[in-house]
Design goal:
- This protein has 163 residues and is of the alpha+beta class.
- The longest helix is centred in the N-terminal third of the chain and has 27 residues, at 5-31.
- A hairpin with a 5-residue loop joins strand 1 (76-80) and strand 2.
- It is built from three helices and nine strands; from the N terminus they run H-H-H-E-E-E-E-E-E-E-E-E.
- It has one domain (5-160): Metal Binding Protein, Guanine Nucleotide Exchange Factor, Chain A, CATH 2.170.150.20.
């Protein structure tokens, strides 16, 4: 089966629009103080690296297999790189083979999911405290949840457990 360029573009346009609308509503919520931690764009740019800003504040995606956190196997917690809120536990991390750190469940109170999205890109996952874009969740993960939280490593920082 061959897909024409036109069919590919026509299929991509609605998906891009859905992501754009989802991000715009998230940006509007952040700028209206709907999150506990808010900053102006200029402040975020000073607080984050350019790549962190692109992912967390502009809903970008890092290249697969580039994050050092992909191979992080120590016990600990993964926190939002924007506001330090704990979002995922190393106990729920697994190798999905996709090239991004993946988890089968978030920590309670760490994330929110934006309504909308698409099956191709999953539902957007963002930080509960600052609204930073973390990644997406899909329904193809392991048990017990069946969920795959596919998260940009650049949007996280790892805090090793004290032993």
């Amino acid at each position: 089966m061959s897909i024409s360029r036109r069919a590919l573009i026509m299929g991509a346009v609605p998906a891009c629009l859905a992501l754009s609308v989802s991000y715009r509503s998230l940006s509007q919520a952040a700028s209206h103080g709907a999150f506990e931690v808010t900053h102006t764009n200029e402040e975020w740019q000073k607080l984050l690296t350019p790549e962190q800003y692109r992912v967390l504040r502009e809903a970008g995606t890092e290249a697969p297999f580039t994050s050092p956190l992909l191979n992080e196997k120590r016990s600990g917690t993964f926190a939002c790189a924007g506001c330090d809120l704990d979002t995922f536990s190393s106990a729920n991390k697994y190798d999905s083979g996709t090239g991004w750190p993946s988890f089968w469940a978030p920590l309670k109170g760490g994330i929110e999911q934006s309504p909308g999205g698409s099956r191709m890109f999953g539902i957007e996952v963002h930080c509960h405290r600052c609204g930073g874009h973390l990644g997406h969740v899909f329904d193809d993960g392991p048990q017990p949840t069946g969920q795959r939280y596919c998260i940009n490593g650049v949007a996280l920082k790892f805090k090793p457990a004290h032993t």
